[in-house]
Design a protein that fits this description.
Layout: H1 3-16, H2 26-37, E1 46-53, E2 56-63, E3 71-75, H3 89-99, E4 103-106, H4 118-132, E5 140-145, H5 147-161, E6 169-173, H6 185-188, H7 198-209, H8 221-224, E7 233-238, H9 244-256, E8 261-266, H10 281-297
Parallel strand pairs: 3-4, 3-5, 5-6, 6-7, 7-8
Antiparallel strand pairs: 1-2, 2-4
Helix pairs in contact: 3-10, 4-5
């Protein structure tokens, strides 16, 4: 691991950061986010196929060579208001290549047109469609980054509450897990996080909340959710993040609820640092750890035929 790489990237992100503007035009924000994410390369060795799942558009991402059984249901980031399967394609493809397991990246509905709980409803509908297609829950893992990392957790909670079998595993990269924004790192990492400020997160959060109370389980699972019965989860986060304590607190509460949980914290790296393949050695190492976690838990045949 290279301290020099981390410090160089942190300085580049600090000096390259534009002044934060009010979130007045969501179309402009979406275009800007798409342009930013297009700078992250998509590796070769995968093929993509447009499809649909649970009534929503999706993109199937497959390894060209020797795919393994199973499915990763992937949720992109973007504060629940921005992004698409394409904006997360670099990270999705890296995970597919490292696991050998195909992913379906879901184009869930976005706020403010579709505020909470639309994205979670789409996640559960997609999962239900996979189950109905004959894929056992033991062969499905949820994964995502940022808001999508939070969605991988909340969709699992909602699926459990709907009486569905939970997926085999959850992998969440820098997940957002608390819309009350009550984590200590929201203040201690203010000015350290090169991407976010508390005020900026409040504004984008309002698009998703649409006036609803943030203090409820599916909006603040790190604080309020019953986590019992959830599948094994891997939470990866960097110390330079406002969202650091979202993962720390969820891991503590998951442990207390009897859930297998790995809290994987990397020092000196930014939000969704896994995207910086070729820039940070830590990005590749984290993706390799995530891939091992998924390969160990995804089983193509359900152990219980009743599922």
């Amino acid at each position: 691991m290279t301290t020099e790489q981390r410090e160089t990237l942190a300085e580049q992100l600090r000096t390259g950061r534009a002044p934060e503007a009010p979130a007045t035009n969501v179309d402009e924000l979406r275009a800007g986010f798409a342009a930013l994410m297009s700078t992250f390369p998509v590796p070769s060795g995968i093929r993509t196929i447009s499809t649909d799942l649970g009534g929503r558009p999706a993109v199937l991402v497959e390894p060209v060579a020797d795919p393994r059984p199973g499915i990763l249901l992937y949720f992109h980031g973007g504060s629940f208001a921005l992004g698409s399967p394409e904006t997360a394609m670099g990270t999705t493809a890296q995970l597919v290549l490292r696991t050998g397991i195909p992913a379906i990246s879901l184009d869930y509905r976005l706020a403010p047109e579709h505020p909470f709980p639309a994205a979670i409803e789409d996640g559960v509908a997609a999962y239900r469609a996979l189950l109905r297609s004959g894929t056992p829950s033991s062969a499905i893992a949820f994964a995502g980054d940022s808001a999508g990392g939070g969605l991988s957790v909340t969709s699992s909670i909602a699926a459990r509450d709907a009486g569905l079998p939970v997926p085999a595993a959850i992998v969440a990269f820098s997940p957002g897990l608390d819309h009350t924004r009550s984590g200590r790192s929201m203040s201690t990492k203010d000015g350290v996080d090169p991407f976010f400020t508390p005020e900026g997160m409040r504004r984008t959060g309002e698009l998703y909340l649409a006036g609803q109370d943030a203090a409820q389980p599916l909006l603040a699972p790190a604080v309020h959710a019953d986590l019992r019965g959830l599948p094994p989860m891997l939470l990866q986060v960097g110390t330079n993040e406002l969202l650091l304590d979202d993962s720390v607190r969820l891991a503590d509460r998951a442990r207390d609820a009897g859930v297998d949980v790995i809290l994987d914290v990397t020092a000196g790296v930014p939000h969704v640092f896994q995207a910086y393949v070729g820039i940070l050695d830590e990005a590749e190492e984290a993706l390799d750890r995530a891939a091992l976690f998924l390969r160990q838990r995804i089983r193509p045949v359900a152990p219980d035929a009743s599922h």
